[in-house]
Amino acid sequence: MRNQFVNLLRGWAEHDRRVTLIVGDLGYGVVDEFASTLPAQFINAGIAEQSMMTMAAGMASESFRPFVYSIANFPTFRAAEQIRNDIAHHRLPVTVVAVGGGLVYGSLGYSHHAIQDYALIRAMPEMTIYAPGDPHEMDAVFAEIQRKAVPAYLRIGSPATPAVHTGPVAVEAGALLHVAGPVDTDRAIITTGAVLALAREWLDLPAYEGYGLYSMPVWGAAFRGRALDALAPFSRIVTVEDHLLDGGFGSWILESLSAEDRAVSVRIKALDPVVAEAVGKEDHLRLVGGLVP
């Protein structure tokens, strides 16, 4: 979905000079066309993620719409203070674009395992998390980012992420998208991000008979109340994510439900920390990390 994102961004930037792409000396082959066709709206800031964030914050304060693009761990943990203080605290419309969310770059080792990023970003109440699960959701979340000038975190999975939805969708923060399975049921598999295709496979297993599959591509600390409304029909929930259990999406679902005294069974399917010691392709590392039905 990296190419899809860059193409969407270029289409917007061609009609809006405020839109700027800032990269950390990577992405060649993906961002080359943007850089060559819109050189005045492209900045290679070098391997300087903290400076990239502060630069983007300054530009956003002057009415620009900056997108800061890097491999998932680098624009988050390296620049956490700048995201927190310069962007989120001032509610500036900077979009942090994290490519390779989860275990996409697992062959490069733990430095490239983006399995704690939700925990960091969702602790900032001003940040909206956009985690599209397929190309249709990418189109929808990009339209939301265009429409809402807020601090945003866009988490992109594998370049080969398949389409799961059968057509265009509309997204809303804290709302669920029905993907497959029955809608008149009190049981749900709920995903966010690039594990949507994996969860779609699980839905066909006997253990998940009678479950509906839903995704939540837009969420964050500010939207727990909305999520509580969306979760109201369900008494059994299974969450699926390519992130450690601690501080992840399933934990956020539990925190949302804690606002009400309601009997809901929640099972969290997430990664075990043992995956941090492993190196390999994404599918292999998901198995090592226990992301199984």
Domains (count): 2
Q: Regions with pLDDT < 50 over 5+ consecutive residues?
A: none
Q: How much of the polypeptide forms β-strand, as a percent range?
A: 15-25%
Shape: globular
CATH class of the largest domain: Alpha Beta
CATH architectural type of the largest domain: 3-Layer(aba) Sandwich
Biggest β-sheet: strands ordered side by side in the sheet: 2-1-3-4-6-5-10
- What share of the residues lie within helices? 25-40%
By CATH, the topology of the largest domain is Rossmann fold
Instruction: Describe the sheet with the most strands.
Output: 7 strands, mixed
Could you give the count of β-strands? Answer: 12
Give the terminus-to-terminus CA distance.
Answer: 25 Å
- Kindly report the average pLDDT value: 96
* Overall radius of gyration: 18 Å
Output the helix-strand order.
HEHEHEHEHEHEEEHEEHEHEH
Task: Supply the helix-strand structural class.
Answer: alpha/beta
* Continuous helix count: 10
Relevant terms:
alpha/beta; Rossmann fold; 7-stranded mixed β-sheet
Please describe the topology of this protein.
Layout: H1 2-13, E1 19-23, H2 32-37, E2 42-44, H3 49-60, E3 65-71, H4 80-88, E4 95-99, H5 117-121, E5 128-130, H6 135-147, E6 152-156, E7 177-180, E8 187-191, H7 196-202, E9 212-215, E10 218-219, H8 224-231, E11 236-244, H9 249-257, E12 265-271, H10 282-288
Parallel strand pairs: 1-2, 1-3, 3-4, 4-6, 5-6, 8-9, 8-11, 11-12
Antiparallel strand pairs: 5-10, 7-9
